[in-house]
Structures are given as C-alpha cells and as structure tokens.
Amino acid sequence: MSREDDLALMREYTKNEGLIRHMLAVEVAVRAYAHKLGEEEEKWATVGLLHDFDYERWPDPPDHPLKGSAILAERGYPADVIYAIKSHADYLEDCPRVSPLDKALYACDELCGFITACALVRPTRLEGLKPKSVRKKMKTASFAAAVNRDDIVNGAEDFGVELNEHITFCIAAMQTIAEELDLLPPAE
Is the peptide bond before 65 cis (omega within 30 degrees of 0)? Predict the structure, then answer.
C-alpha cells in the first residue's frame, strides 16, 4: 500500500478535520521514530496515519479499532500493521504491545493529541513549545481533559524513552508539518 492509498482510506472513513490532523501528527511522530531507530518508515507511518481511521464511525470499544482492523485485513494490509493498530487499545487484552512499532504508536498517540492542545492555546503554537510547558499543562486536569495523562507517561516508559526527551522529539516531528496541522503561528 502507498501513502496515497492510506490517505484515501483515512479520508473515506474520516471527515472531521481535527481527527485527520491528529492522525497526521501521530504519523509524523511515529515515522520520525522509525527513522531514528532504523525501522521501516513507511510501515510505521501507515500505522500512525491509520490508527484512528475508524474512530469517527465506530468510537465505542471494542468496535474501535476492531471494525477498522477488519477493513484493513480486507484491503490486504500486513498483519503486523493491523496488530500494532489493535494494540493501541488498552481494552483489547489479547493484543499486548510487544514490538517497538506497537510501543511507538501507544507512546505517540495521546502525547501528540496533548501537544496539539498545548500548541492551540499559545500565540506561537508549536514554535518554542517546551517539555516544561507540556508537563505543567499535564497537571491541570481540566485542560484537554479527554487526554489520559497516565497513557502519556506509561507509553513513554514502556517505549523506553525519557518523558521530556519524548515530548521534545514529538514536538520537533510535528513542527515539520506544522502548516498541515494548522499549528503555525497566526500571520501578523
């Protein structure tokens, strides 16, 4: 499958632009980790991009990600891609995170969403965003309340990356597509 195929599938099932930007953010972060670790960048990027493609239609567990996993299987996606996507759902006990790909997706998913929330309340958006600011916002339960802070902390730990370094890494990855994510500072 090509990235164009992945994008077409994502857009076929997802109309919400915020959710699309989230998947793009996770894609770029997971791809950056694949590059850093010498892994298959396209495969990792596919997992990042498609991990929530079914969420808009089937948001309730276990439909998400099982409905999407069935669609991916029908379309010929590799088993390890499908497994990694399934493994990001804590409630699927038969899909523990075992591979670096599984762990990277889990580590990047909630964090990218939280970084986006942090950037949106800053005049400079992603520009100049530091781990200290992100960590401070993590302590405010009412800020981006839907984001599970334990998933952010545990995801980094399970992936074997120090949390501040992980935050810095994901911010840097997201900055490479800041325009696509609508996270550039507003024009003056």
Answer: yes
Question: What is the overall mean pLDDT for the chain?
Answer: 97
Pull the structure tokens for residue 35.
Answer: 């590059």
Cα dihedral sign for 36, 93, 14, 6?
A: positive
Report, as an integer, the average pLDDT of 18-43: 98
Name all domains of the chain by residue range, CATH numbers in brackets.
3-175 (1.10.3210)
Rounded Cα distance between 113 and 12, Å, is: 22
- Cβ-based neighbour number of residue 178 at 10 Å: 18
- The pTM of this model reads 0.97
Question: How many CB atoms lie under 10 A from the CB of residue 92?
Answer: 15
What would the pLDDT profile of 113-150 be if each residue is shown by its tens digit?
Answer: 999 999 999 999 999 999 999 999 999 999 999 999 99
Number of H helices, E strands in the chain: 9, 0
